[in-house]
Amino acid sequence: MLAWRSAESGLPWCSGGLLLLGLLISMSGVASETFNVRTASTQLVGGIYRLHAQIDYPLNEEVRKAVKSGIPLIVNQEIEILRLRRWLWPKTIKEITLRYQLRYHALSEQFVLLYLSQDRQRAYPNLSAAIKSLSTIKDYPLITQEELEPHQRYRVRLRTRLNIEDLPAPMRPIAYLSPQWHLDSPWFSWLLGSPGL
């Protein structure tokens, strides 16, 4: 097995790399909180099922500092609609990903939330206000009644996550190694047209 030596330390690169990896992991600590879908439901209005949800986005200090330093964050809200089947696994009939970018605009000293799925944006005076807006999904048109088969049961599920792959290239190795950056919620599911369970 080949092992590269450091010119300064004389240690094999593989040993030094493992030591550095261990140091990074121990310094990063364990994330105390992560994203969480608190409530979600769908309501049939004018032939369209509309989604309502409340999501918790507790950003730890490391992630907050990164945003305030100008590093943009991409948050995905992933939605699936499944048709329930008696003897088979549920069949996915629709998948939707709502993408948002949260960034700090230094010139205006405001936090900007870009709705990448809808090509629009809003500015907020502070990070808390931007996160509060991101936390609410209201009246999102999910699926029409015509797209569904009559007399079938459907389940909706929702999760959200911070997309590490969309971070600037120099940040990705740190984010992959640090639990502080692994922010994603478990799936939250409910029957279509019913309150979330």
UniProtKB/TrEMBL annotation:
It comes from the Bacteria. Pfam families: DUF4390 (PF14334). This is Proline rich signal peptide protein.
